[in-house]
Write a structure and sequence with these properties.
With 374 residues, the protein is of the alpha+beta class. It has 8 helices and 21 strands. Strands 5-6-7-12-8-11-20 form a 7-stranded mixed sheet, with helices on one face. α5 runs parallel beside α6 and α7 packs across α8. It is globular, with a radius of gyration of 21 Å. It binds 3-(2-carboxyethyl)benzoic acid. 3-(2-carboxyethyl)benzoic acid (3EB) binds next to β11 and β15.
Length: 374
Amino acid sequence: MTTTRTPTAPLEATLGVAPRSANGAVLLLDYLSSEKIASQSPAWWQNVLGVVGFEKPPAIDGARAPITASMTPSLGLNDDLCEVWRVEGADVRMSNGTAERSRVRYRFCQELLFGSITIEERALEAEGPPGGGAGGRSGALIRATELAYQEIFAVLRETGHPHLIRIWNYLPEINRDAGGDERYRLFNSARQLAFRNSGQAIVGAVPAACALGSPAGSPISIYFLAARQRPRMIENPRQTSAYRYPPKFGRHSPIFSRACVLHESAGTNLFVSGTASIVGYETIHQGDVGAQTRETMANIAALLDEANRVVGPGRYSLDGLKFKVYVRQPSDLGAIEEALSGSLRSSTPIVYLHADVCREDLLVEIEATGESAG
Ligand code: 3EB
């Protein structure tokens, strides 16, 4: 054996294999019809982390990964699409969640975990004090939120994926008043309490997120991605960090980052939180859905600039993103599409969903995921 390694040659080059990033797992996001998903081979399922339907969970026999739904109906031509999270890599071994006491269903590989939980508030109302008021109907939302987050953090501890990178929150009737407080504000209080009680940071290293309203009668539905490695959180220079919103938006600030980057990872590695027409901390362009859409895209463009500044120039651009657009009033769909055509190519993947946005004066909210260039 005469081969020697020069001190500078990477081990992979010496061994004649392609260099891999420190993080071998590559996360991929696809939007596929449930029919297409149902026709996939067992080998394909092997690498699936989770599947998310929109209006309801897709009926798929023999699925090996958690299947959930946001409970928000799709608009336009996106009927029946599902969001599919998949991992590729040389040596990806998947495990499924088994924690018996937990309602969280999850699947994970070494680096990444997908999980989902749905909770019916009605089931908790039955357990709580009788009647309305703080202990009754609103109490069920608060308890459900605390339980969901407590169980999520327990799963992350047990499996060794301590870093929440992205979490999607869907609450029925998010803007409805419950005992003097809007339900979104009650959710914010319970979420913040759950973060504190589980020893989680409530500023800085907090996940990217969104919080949308689903129709009355839907279960609370929450799904998430977590990682073994610490991600980078990105804030938007045009916006006050949500965890520093002043108390007029609720006693307890929302806990989320504007975006999150898995910077050592190939594949889908940028997660842009739900983004709306907010500059500083105030809603702007009230009543003008076109202007709100353009302002939202200006916020996303500013976030991409900030991500490129933090992790390295030229990695992210609007053209490399996939979008989900939440529309409060279906009749606004045309105006929103028109406004987006000003900044996005016609080939850009966009899913439109009907959902209430978490401030009454917001008509549209947009989230995105991206891969880095090169
Ligand atoms: C905003 O910027 C709009 O409560 O988790 C966006 C993303 C919004 C996440 C959340 C809320 C959340 O404040 C609303």
